[in-house]
Design a protein that fits this description.
By secondary structure, the chain is an alpha/beta fold. It contains 13 helices and twelve strands. Strand 1, helix 5 and strand 2 form a beta-alpha-beta unit. The chain is elongated and about 70 Å long. The N and C termini lie far apart (74 Å).
Amino acid sequence: MDRRATIKDVAEAAGVGVATVSRVLSGGSASPQTRDRVLAVAAQLDYRPSALGRNLRQRRTGGMGLLIPDLTDTFYGQLAEGVLACARSAGEPVMLGSTGGDPEQESELIGMLLEQSVDRLIAVPSGDAETWAPAIRAGMTVIFADRLPSHATEEDTRAAALADLLAMDGLSPAAQPRPLDVPAVVADDRAGIRTAVRYLRGLGHKRIAFLGGPGHDRRAAAFRDAVGAPVDEELVVFGTGSRDSAYAAASGLFQSRPDLSAVVAGGNVLGEAAVLAARELDLRVPRDVSLVMYDDVPWAELCSPPLTVIAQPGRDMGYRAAELVLRAGSRKPRSVVLPTELIIRGSCGPRR
């Protein structure tokens, strides 16, 4: 039986990614050669690109999409629970996808959701503004949760992250406008990190490190701001997202800077990596190194000693994001900043 050609068929036949096909069909940027090749293949396969945008503009299919980086991450599980609870109360189905923190995989999933005429999406973004442009141009209602898309360069990312923090604090308008004006539900990273650094400083710690991962630009900016100038950039270390990378980053940090006395881990995967690396290197927590972890997950209390954490409301974040995407209509929703809380347990002690 013949079947209708899909956007994935066009991508494979044209030798490009789904995201590229999506950009071409929605009028986005592409080289003339790529554009001609994609349009020729679409015509050959009798693919009707106009249906994509028309479906999004003229009718709803019901339901929403949810894209998160890692289904095994406890925090993202909490966020997903919040989304599902809100959607269930509204009688809306949810299509769940895991991007693996990979922008290319994220682009492919966005293309698939557009192909299926999903017109509302909640996402913890991994890609940059270019990744998300096709969805926005096609009329999809998007709400970001937990973080915002990255910038093309590290310098732009740092500047935008600092501007976001200042805007959240009401200190000044964002100095660098983002290429995507998309509402988001995020935690108050500035207050959370600042409180943790002040707590560690009160215990006598001077050489405090930050261990971050993808999407932690605002938390890193908050850390730099909290420790003050001059910032020792050797103490600001990033992993790529996987557990192996997080462990390598934590282990490398401990070995290269034996003078550090405290670490702020930007997420629960990084906190787990810091605990394992410290154990492998015979570093005692908190006698040799104090540890604060962003995210309060169940196993944090089961560690020996229990971990001091910056708690953010993951389930509430997901629920609020789902409320925004369900209520979105002619008026664009406003972004929401949720409070954090420093929960003091046994993983921090005075500098010896």
